[in-house]
């Protein structure tokens, strides 16, 4: 496969300007240049259509980042654009509530197993923070057990390495546990008897639950008087329309959704049991743009399109081709001990290990460098959209084949860093390596 002839002049010019006026240069860490091989990857995208995006220099890429998973149908998807344009002509935000709030709520209640009532936010952090607050109000307890990534608010981010500015007293109220290790949650309950308000978790984190893990979490939470909250910001509208709770057949007390429910427009939701959700009548969860109509219209149309076009099945089929194809190429290049594609077809990730079994950002950077040069934009995660075609998958696997051959030779010769053409990827704080 040919390496693209590219220029990155405009990307670099914008970046030089941004560094002077935007802290960290970016609004979103995961979109910033530290997550890509600097000097090789584009820094700014200008437009996108379907599964393809174009940077400010006019270079074209097949995109698997998909705006951090928020695009499910495809960029500039016609039916969604039409719904937004129609609503735009009638107004964006109003002085009173809008009927679309009711229509989308009714739709979600039909789709999501645990949903009996609905509230809207603008991003995943709104939803998870609102769910935690209402769980505390409902149970009269303060501590939270968490598993996964739950956004930027103090209650969660204090558990990570990005905890500057979070009060120590707040950090002490949230305790992480490990996925597929029920004993880590048992320890939390044993050491905090009668104090845990809720267990909030990503129900699937790049691997299927083992030994009835998620069901055991639910039983452990309820057995100790705590609520179970599924953070479905990633899994919702990808594994099933009703999220991982539909996929697993395990119903939580509350659940949060975001990202893919509106094909890139900013909206999230908290759904759950009526008796718990009624506490939102007392708990303060309110913002000027909670009922913003363009996002509501987009969400309604996105969900209808996913239903009509059987998008979930498309995600599975195309995602499985990528996963199986990648792992086959990894084995053929004798790299199975260094790299593998893990997760579920609709949302998978490529991990990279060194000879000691530790995460290798050098290998990840080399791989990313080579696929970007061949027109594939990825941060190591496969988010599949309805617009990803068979041709897209074939071209992607061709790029993977070339890139893995280069990686295999670099591993054999021990010169990985020497052939990197730019600064390697830096971690934000999250890791996808399985045990």
Q: Give the uncertain stretches in residue-range form.
A: none
Number of domains: 2
Tell me the Rg in angstroms. Answer: 22 Å
Q: Could you tell me the mean pLDDT?
A: 95
CATH topology name of the largest domain: Aspartate Aminotransferase, domain 2
Q: How would the global form be characterised?
A: globular
> Major beta sheet, specifics?
7 strands, mixed
In percent, how much strand structure appears in the residues? Answer: 5-15%
- The CATH superfamily name of the largest domain is Type I PLP-dependent aspartate aminotransferase-like (Major domain)
H/E topology pattern: HEEEHHHEHEHHEHEHEHEEHHHEEHEEH
Number of continuous helical runs: 15
Structural class, from helix and strand content?
alpha/beta
CATH class of the largest domain: Alpha Beta
Written description of the protein model:
- By secondary structure, the chain is an alpha/beta fold.
- It contains 15 helices and 14 strands.
- The protein has helices at residues 9-21, 66-69, 78-88, 99-111, 124-139, 154-157, 168-171, 182-191, 213-223, 244-248, 274-277, 293-308, 311-332, 361-373, 390-413; strands at 45-49, 52-55, 60-63, 117-121, 143-147, 174-176, 196-201, 227-231, 254-257, 268-272, 339-344, 347-352, 376-377, 381-383.
- A hairpin with a 2-residue loop joins β11 and β12.
- α4 (99-111) runs parallel beside α12 (293-308).
- The protein is globular.
- The chain starts with 8 loop residues before the first helix and ends in a 22-residue tail after the last helix.
- The model has no long low-confidence stretch (mean pLDDT 95).
């Amino acid at each position: 496969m040919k390496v693209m002839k590219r220029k990155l002049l405009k990307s670099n010019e914008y970046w030089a300007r941004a560094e002077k006026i935007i802290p960290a240069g970016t609004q979103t860490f995961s979109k910033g240049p530290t997550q890509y091989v600097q000097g090789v990857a584009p820094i700014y995208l200008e437009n996108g259509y379907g599964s393809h995006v174009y940077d400010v220099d006019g270079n074209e890429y097949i995109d698997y980042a998909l705006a951090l998973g928020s695009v499910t149908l495809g960029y500039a998807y016609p039916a969604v654009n039409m719904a937004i344009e129609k609503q735009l002509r009638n107004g964006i935000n109003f002085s009173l509530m809008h009927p679309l709030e009711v229509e989308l709520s009714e739709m979600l209640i039909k789709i999501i197993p645990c949903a009996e009532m609905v509230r809207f936010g603008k991003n995943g952090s709104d939803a998870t923070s609102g769910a935690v607050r209402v769980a505390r109000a409902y149970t009269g307890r303060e501590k939270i057990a968490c598993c996964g990534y739950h956004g930027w608010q103090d209650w969660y981010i204090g558990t990570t390495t990005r905890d500057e500015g979070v009060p120590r007293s707040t950090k002490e109220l949230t305790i992480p546990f490990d996925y597929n290790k029920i004993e880590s949650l048992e320890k939390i309950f044993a050491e905090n008897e009668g104090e845990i308000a809720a267990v909030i978790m990503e129900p699937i984190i790049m691997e299927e639950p083992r030994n009835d893990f998620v069901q055991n979490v639910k039983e452990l939470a309820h057995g100790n008087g705590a609520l179970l909250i599924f953070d479905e910001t990633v899994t919702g509208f990808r594994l099933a329309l009703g999220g991982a709770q539909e996929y697993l057949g395990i119903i939580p007390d509350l659940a949060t959704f975001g990202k893919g429910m509106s094909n890139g427009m900013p909206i999230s939701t908290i759904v759950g049991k009526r008796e718990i959700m009624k506490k939102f009548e007392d708990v303060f969860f309110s913002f000027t743009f909670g009922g913003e109509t363009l996002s509501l219209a987009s969400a309604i149309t996105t969900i209808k399109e996913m239903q009509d076009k059987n998008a979930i099945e498309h995600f599975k089929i195309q995602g499985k081709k990528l996963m199986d194809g990648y792992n086959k190429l990894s084995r053929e290049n004798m790299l199975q001990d260094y790299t593998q594609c893990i997760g579920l077809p609709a949302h998978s990730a490529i991990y990279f290990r060194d000879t000691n079994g530790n995460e290798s950002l050098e290998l990840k950077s080399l791989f990313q460098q080579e696929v970007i040069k061949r027109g594939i934009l990825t941060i190591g995660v496969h988010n599949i959209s309805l617009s990803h075609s068979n041709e897209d998958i074939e071209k992607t696997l061709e790029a993977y084949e070339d890139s893995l051959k280069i990686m295999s030779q670099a591993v054999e010769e021990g010169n990985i860093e020497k052939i990197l053409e730019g600064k390697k990827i830096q971690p934000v704080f999250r890791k996808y390596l399985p045990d």
